[in-house]
Write a structure and sequence with these properties.
This protein is of the alpha/beta class. The protein has one domain: Rossmann fold (3-Layer(aba) Sandwich), CATH 3.40.50.720. Helices cover 49% and strands 15% of the residues. It has eleven helices and nine strands. The strands form two sheets. It has a seven-stranded parallel sheet, sandwiched between helices. The longest helix has 20 residues. The protein is globular.
Length: 261
């Protein structure tokens, strides 16, 4: 499957791609997939040691904290200085909080929004001048099915992903005619360290025994969305079914989520 995908997306040869949150999970697989498809990848995360595990001839590791203006500006300056341009930005960095609205500490809520939303905004603003100068580019925002569906005890994470979706929609209109695409990817339940790394106020790490789809599946979807210049992609059958219920049977969806999540 991967070899077929690589043949299909030869247009990524020598493209310059920045991927945030590239130390694990979806970000790591996305960085590897773009590199396999011929791109030059700048892998971004705070964990320098994990980035070095995938660094090589086609992957440049640049440790960066997306909540820090200086870090993000240095990231883009380094990319342009060494590679000459920025063709694709994949905004993937993020984490979760599992807690009720009532019990969520305000400091935790602020930190989550700083990473999940303002990190996206910060990185996007940093690359836009270069993309406009080039007259081309793609900004890929990794949201979630929770960009469409709000679930109990995930309120702040949902809010951050709803905000990323709104930002994507507005930005797409603002950039019309510039040659810059804005793509929103909405994965469903994915088997990554996300659940082990989220802030939990009690309760199990995972709700059920299912592991979800492999992050490589999401990475492939990102490459295909870029190749086809998609606006939005909703992954997984349960995610698509949930989006259908949200539109046509919202009360039934609320009952189901309250009962089973």
């Amino acid at each position: 499957m991967l070899s077929f995908l690589i043949r299909k997306v030869k247009k990524f040869t020598n493209k310059i791609v920045i991927v945030t949150g590239a130390s694990t999970g979806i970000g790591r697989e996305t960085a590897l997939a773009f590199a396999a498809a011929g791109a030059r990848v700048v892998a971004v995360a705070r964990n320098a040691a994990q980035l070095q595990e995938i660094a090589g001839d086609t992957i440049l590791a640049v440790p960066t904290d997306v909540t820090c203006d200086d870090d993000v500006n240095r990231l883009v300056e380094t990319t342009i200085a060494k590679l000459g341009r920025v063709d694709i930005l994949v905004n993937n960095a993020g984490f979760g909080i599992r807690a009720t609205v009532e019990n969520t500490a305000f400091a935790d809520a602020q930190r989550l929004m700083e990473v999940n939303f303002f990190g996206v905004l910060r990185c996007t603003q940093a690359v836009l001048p270069q993309m406009k100068k080039q007259g081309s580019g793609q900004i890929v925002n990794v949201g979630s099915i929770l960009s469409l569906l709000a679930t109990p005890r995930n309120s702040l994470y949902c809010a951050s992903k709803f905000a990323v979706r709104a930002l994507s929609d507005s930005l797409r209109i603002e950039l019309r005619g510039t040659g810059i695409d804005v793509i929103l990817i909405m994965p469903g339940y994915t088997d990554t360290p996300f659940f082990e790394n989220q802030v939990r106020y009690g309760g199990p790490v995972r709700i059920g025994p299912m592991k979800g789809v492999h992050p490589r599946t999401v990475a492939r979807a990102i490459l295909c969305a870029c190749a086809r210049r998609k606006r939005e992609v909703v992954l997984t059958i349960p995610g698509k079914f949930g989006a259908f219920l949200k539109r046509w049977c919202p009360r039934f969806l609320d009952w189901t989520l309250a009962r089973f999540t």
